[in-house]
Protein: Catalase-related peroxidase
Amino acid sequence: METDHRDDVPNARGGAEYLRGALTRRGALWGLGALAGIAAVDVGGFAYAGGWLRPDALTPDRFADRFEEVYGRHDGFRRNHAKGLSATGTFTSTGAGAAICRAAVFRPGTVPVTGRFSLGGGLPDQPDKLDTVRGLGLVFAVAGQQWRTAMINIPVFTDSTPQGFYERLLASKPRPDTGKADPQAMAAFLQRHPETAAAMKIIKQSPPTAGFADSAYYGLNAFHFTNDAGTTVAVRWSLVPQGAGEPTRGASSVAGKDFLFDDLIRAVSQRPLSWRLMLTVGEPGDPTNDATKPWPPARRTIDAGTVTITAVHTEQAGNARDVNFDPLVLPDGITVSDDPLPPARSAVYARSFTRRAEEPKAPSEVNVTAVTL
Structure:
């Protein structure tokens, strides 16, 4: 596999060929999907292999169109998690993860990572708010392979199916007169989707932290890990912050439009930021196909190592701006489960990439050099 950080995947040839490949690699033949503001489609209801079998099927194009309908079109930016900041650092493995996974990334040692901090939503210049979903995407590169993951700062996902996500996206569209979602439309959506209402209750019990640096980030979806002995277990993973401290404001102590990103830039300029990569091992009966449902807190956890971010960068050509955090780019030893969202996200991400790759690029809202350190 390639180990550079372009927005294609290893052995992909871009455009339509990448999209077709996204439908079949790792055995994922059906669906679209997303997590935390990333698109999704119901694999149970939409045939998706070699062509569209229904005129009303939820295709990658339709998902991208829906984001543009809700947030407007912003050339050159991602259709979701549009506002972001690139990052670089390392992952130092404890070696403990090798007990359940043969992937080289879990062997003792240190490997480079490329990352991206972001806010959910399709507005690249939106004002920072504490309650906006925060994302952290990472690419681990080791032994000629890559592991790509996109995580968010909520403990469960809001939707169990891609179709549910698609419907919620429209229900949450701000009204022109109020700037907020239509309460009747959202109430009707929640009545049709009690799993989302239940997930929202869980999310409300975990209020957001003060910034990116002290946030925990969750993979949410279940994947299968296989070790050298051939034993396979279901796993979810998370990043737990280590000694992040309080946000560091500028001399005026005034929170500006980009205060979450500005605080992150200042924090990284003062010290590396670290998170522990925790692997949670599922047991028989734990749901692997429904990201709205948490696993019992007593499940076994493994401290796999430390992710350390040593620098952040204004998004531009050559850094994480051009990385597609495709959840199906997996190293040997990790495979997709029966969760419908990851294979769906893979296809929608591909469509988002091919659109923005052909569009003119505008400067990023977040500029590292513009922050007073």
